[in-house]
Design brief:
Blueprint lengths: L2 E2 L2 E4 L6 E5 L14 E8 L2 E10 L1 E4 L4 E5 L9 E10 L4 E12 L8 H8 L7 H19 L6 E7 L4 E15 L9 E2 L5 E4 L6 E6 L16 E7 L7 H17 L7 E4 L3 E4 L6 H8 L9
Parallel strand pairs: 1-9, 2-9
Antiparallel strand pairs: 3-7, 4-5, 4-8, 6-7, 8-9, 10-15, 11-12, 11-14, 11-15, 13-14, 16-17
């Protein structure tokens, strides 16, 4: 049986390498001298649809390390993709590595496959694809409940000009520019000394004020889309521990609820009748309510 390794990547990102290491059953790197290798990837929930069937490049063939460079057409949809690495010669085909590639909208998930399997005492890989999908679903449920995202993305966003600028959750600013005359050209680039990010001593930053000691009197007031910000957006540079724990609990709940066939009411002669709680687990809500659930929306 092939060794397994799982990856999480961001939808639409490309130009980076997926790095693989081929190992034997004891976990020792394999010398693959004489072998070629290729990556095969299948569409989510469609094992008959092969999306990638391309050669990999060896990083160090004697240590079994290789890579595949992701292109702009590879991972264009969110989902869980099954993959394998095939090492081969003229006479041998070796299924050397397999696993799942989870494609998320932005950054990584809030918990890992390995954490969930450890929590549920699962030792095999038979249900990895199901768990991976539930990890994505728990992330979406947490984002919807909290009205914010806890992973990060680098993006450009636009805001209407005002005296105080209320923004989406922000980790850091790369560039802040103003279109002061409304012509669609952002002529003014503010220095970091021209504005102040708030709250001052915590993250995420949620609004910006002009520095009274800077060179500007406002943020292109009354100009629609007068402010252009390139930055890293999200709650923080790392997922907070309570959010990670909430994701583990909710994913385990999704997984265990299958045992009731998603019924609303279950029971037995020994336990009586029990109503299955719908929505987020109560413990998840407790973990998220303060300070992670956003009360001001928009």
């Amino acid at each position: 049986m092939a060794n397994t390794e799982n990856f999480t990547v961001t939808k639409g990102s490309y130009g980076y390498n997926l790095n693989f290491t081929l190992k034997d059953s004891a976990g020792t790197a394999r010398n693959m001298t004489g072998y070629s290798a290729k990556l095969q990837v299948w569409a989510p929930l469609a094992p008959g649809t092969l999306l990638i069937d391309s050669a990999c490049s060896w990083t160090d063939i004697t240590a079994g390390t290789l890579y595949y460079t992701v292109t702009n057409t590879n991972f264009t949809s969110v989902g869980v993709y099954q993959y394998c690495i095939k090492a081969y010669t003229d006479t041998i085909v070796d299924l050397a590595l397999s696993g799942f590639i989870t494609v998320t909208q932005y950054g990584g998930n809030y918990c890992t496959l390995e954490e969930i399997k450890s929590e549920l005492n699962i030792d095999d890989n038979d249900e990895d694809d199901i768990i991976q999908r539930m990890i994505i679903q728990s992330k979406s449920a947490i984002d919807d409940y909290c009205h914010r995202k806890f992973d990060t993305e680098t993006a450009t966003k636009y805001y209407d000009g005002d005296s105080v600028l209320f923004i989406d959750d922000l980790v850091s600013v790369t560039t802040l520019q103003l279109d002061e005359d409304g012509d669609g050209t952002y002529e003014a680039t503010l220095a970091t000394t021209d504005y102040i990010l708030y709250p001052r001593n915590e993250y995420p930053k949620t609004y910006i004020k002009i520095n009274p000691n800077g060179n500007y009197g406002g943020f292109a007031s009354d100009i629609l889309d007068g402010v252009k910000i390139i930055g890293t957006w999200g709650y923080a540079s790392t997922v907070p521990e309570p959010v990670r724990r909430a994701a583990i609990i909710q994913t385990c709940r999704y997984f265990k609820r299958r045992e009731s066939a998603y019924a609303d009411v279950i029971g037995s002669a020994e336990t009586g009748t029990m109503t299955v709680y719908k929505g987020l687990d109560p413990d998840v809500e407790l973990l998220l309510n303060n300070p992670y659930r956003k009360t001001r929306i928009g």
